[in-house]
Amino acid sequence: MRQLNVSLxxxxxxxxxxxxxxxxxxxxxxxxxxxxxxxxVLTSVPFLLITPQARSGAMGNAGVAVAADANAAAINMAAxxxxxEGSYGFSANYSPWLKNLTQGMSISYLSGYYRLNERNTLAAxxxxxxxxxxxxxxQSQQDLxxxxxxxLAADVSYARSFGPGFSLGGSLRFIYSNLYSGRFNAxxxxxxxxxxxxxxxxxxxxxxxxxxxxxEWSAGINLSNIGTKxxxxxxxxxxxxxxxxxxxxxxxxxxxxxxxxxALDFNKLLVPTxxxxxxxxxxxxxxxxxxSVPAGIFGSFSDAPGGFxxxxxxxxxxxxxxxxxKDRFAVRAGYNYQNxxxxxxxxxxxxxxxxxxxxxxxxxxxxxxxxxNPLANTLRFGLQFNFGKRN
Length: 391
What we know:
Layout: H1 7-10, H2 24-27, H3 54-58, E1 88-96, E2 106-115, E3 120-130, E4 134-137, E5 143-147, E6 150-161, E7 166-178, E8 193-210, E9 213-227, E10 244-254, E11 258-269, E12 276-277, E13 283-285, H4 293-299, H5 307-313, E14 315-325, E15 329-337, E16 347-356, E17 359-368, E18 378-387
Antiparallel strand pairs: 1-2, 1-18, 2-3, 3-6, 4-5, 6-7, 7-8, 8-9, 9-10, 10-11, 11-14, 12-13, 14-15, 15-16, 16-17, 17-18
């Protein structure tokens, strides 16, 4: 039986070379689904780290403490507790992905919500990552055919307010990753990976004044993708989901006809950092990454081979601005920073939004800030339909 060479699927975990570029593996380091390159913090299903909606995408991926819209479950479900009572809506977002490297890869996000009463909100969403056509080869470079891998995550979410300034939210997520199921074998039977995860989020906000103008201060937190490991081969070792801690704050300056939002978020993956191995495969620096999920989460703050300095490098920063006029037009800008040793996925983002009656249209544009950024010129498009009372 010919053995499928899946090292780039699993070792860099997953997707960067799920593309049909003939010289890709020789010309550049592996690119993960979230657009990062060099990184010794490896996870499965990295598409879950992609910001799927256009509004936050235009603000440098910041927004964990920003007022909610129909897409908020993707970044902080707790914020949806403050949508107006009786309101409901749904949204659709779409983005071609890594189009500088391949054709046919995209991420789509569908969501809907209903504000039950003064305190409770329900939501549901579906995230779908299409990888496009992939040419498979065995170890002797014999063509094994073409496959169309895909991944998805389906969520049900709930948020509850505990007064005018504090709310909590949570999501239950089912993850399905079909990379090469039913087509090829490699040291055993392959299958689609399945996992279950949860998000837990919170939001605190208070009103005040800044330079004589009213301002709303807010702080948010989201623990996402905390769940079971995932495996593709029967008997194979499972892999961590991209557990993530997102902390942030925002200031919303309120004028008579306009609002200015300033947001700042910090992100940290809650998975083991890969150690340094010698030529015999023995760990010479760092810690063994083969741990339980709880041990991986708590150990992720102290397991980097480079010590505290490297731990700080694993913290990503997102900052963004949104200026809106008469709650009709909005312009946005942001910047996302990732250390060169931890993915080097830094970029500037721009975007805008327009609302008419129940319809809101958003788009964002990503301009790569580093040379040959695989995410450069990425576009996101979003539609929202909000009914009933609105903020």
